[in-house]
Design brief:
alpha+beta; 20% helix; single chain; 5 helices
Length: 234
């Protein structure tokens, strides 16, 4: 069976508010253009208060990118759920999508989609875990279990802002029991990266070829997180 290479990115866009405290959605889209990934999992993709509108207006995505959002069918004005969203290239087929409730202290959730990428079925999970270490571990156990079940349908990738400052403990210890966890590098704070909060993880049916943090001059201004990326063989 032939293999397929794809690039996946994860990015906490901070509601499109940059380090200059200005909301500029087009700046986020320009960073995504720099990365040029096939699949992008976003965190803090919706505004926090009021109608929780998408931080990236649909008309801007359509006009200034080659992406389309995975439709989560939760709120009319939001692109994501609890701020989590998935963008995919326009030629990628969306076979299934869902939202997952997880135990939480703060409002948190997980999103998932089953995609057909270059003829290959691939499942992705996007998450933004709790600030509390105890709750992060509880959440990781639920997500890891569900992601294991999803492997019946094909290779599985998990990404997101794990909020885990420790390198080998907490939720990372849970995920490592079942998945390979890529250390993409320090992604927070974008102007002086100290913490490896953003991660990409994959099952044993996926091979990681390259991975890292995207640290361009634009990315250091667009959000308080830097995007992480991985080139994978499925």
């Amino acid at each position: 069976m032939t293999s397929t290479e794809i690039t996946v990115a994860s990015y906490n866009i901070r509601k499109a508010i940059g380090t200059d405290r200005t909301r500029r959605p087009i700046r986020i889209l320009n960073v995504l253009e720099e990365i040029d990934a096939d699949i992008v999992i976003l965190q803090e993709a919706d505004q926090r208060f009021g109608k929780r509108q998408s931080a990236l207006p649909a008309f801007l995505i359509e006009a200034h990118s080659h992406y389309k959002p995975v439709p989560l069918d939760v709120q009319t004005d939001s692109m994501g759920w609890h701020g989590n969203a998935i963008l995919v290239r326009e030629d990628i087929e969306i076979e299934h999508h869902d939202i997952i409730h997880i135990p939480c202290l703060e409002p948190r959730g997980v999103i998932t989609a089953r995609l057909c990428v270059k003829g290959k079925s691939l499942s992705v999970f996007g998450m933004h875990l709790d600030l509390s270490g105890l709750w992060r571990t509880k959440q990781a156990k639920v997500i890891a279990y569900l992601a294991q079940q999803e492997q019946e349908h094909g290779p599985t990738i998990l990404t997101g802002d794990l909020n885990e400052w420790r390198r080998n403990a907490g939720c990372l210890k849970v995920f490592r029991k079942h998945f390979s966890v890529l250390d993409c590098g320090r992604s927070f704070h974008s102007q002086r990266p100290l913490a490896r909060l953003d991660r990409i993880m994959h099952c044993d049916r996926v091979e990681a070829l390259e991975w890292g943090v995207h640290q361009s001059s634009l990315a250091t201004q667009a959000s308080d997180h830097l995007p992480v990326w991985a080139r994978l063989r499925v």
